[in-house]
């Protein structure tokens, strides 16, 4: 049986790649999951099933927002800057493409 399937793989390699993958899945005995259909757990196991996927996403998002770094006072600093000159604004508007210029200024 497996020998026949291997021969089919060899024959199909000249045909469509999709059919080759399908036959390989039959030989291996498992289906691969689509990128949106499964995730990997922390230990590397593949998670399938809506509930387990949602649990893993919640865990992942929780890890992202669990920030133990010390506070940076970047926003607390007083950045001294010069006022923007009218000539700078005019120059920038002239450099913009026509459609962008009209959209930025509220024209149709």
UniProtKB/TrEMBL annotation:
Which GO MF terms does the UniProt record name?
Answer: RNA-directed DNA polymerase activity
The alphabetized UniProt keywords are: Nucleotidyltransferase, RNA-directed DNA polymerase, Transferase
Task: Look up the domain of life of the source.
Answer: Eukaryota
Q: What name goes with this protein?
A: RNA-directed DNA polymerase from mobile element jockey-like
Q: What is the lineage of its organism?
A: Eukaryota, Metazoa, Spiralia, Lophotrochozoa, Mollusca
């Amino acid at each position: 049986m497996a020998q026949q399937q291997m021969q089919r793989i060899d024959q199909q390699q000249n045909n469509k790649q999709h059919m080759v993958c399908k036959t390989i899945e039959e030989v291996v005995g498992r289906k691969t999951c689509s990128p949106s259909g499964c995730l990997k757990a922390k230990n590397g196991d593949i998670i399938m099933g809506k509930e387990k996927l949602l649990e893993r996403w919640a865990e992942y998002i929780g890890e992202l927002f669990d920030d133990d770094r010390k506070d940076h006072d970047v926003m607390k600093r007083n950045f001294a800057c010069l006022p923007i000159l009218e000539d700078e604004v005019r120059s920038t508007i002239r450099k913009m493409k026509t459609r962008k210029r009209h959209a930025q200024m509220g024209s149709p």
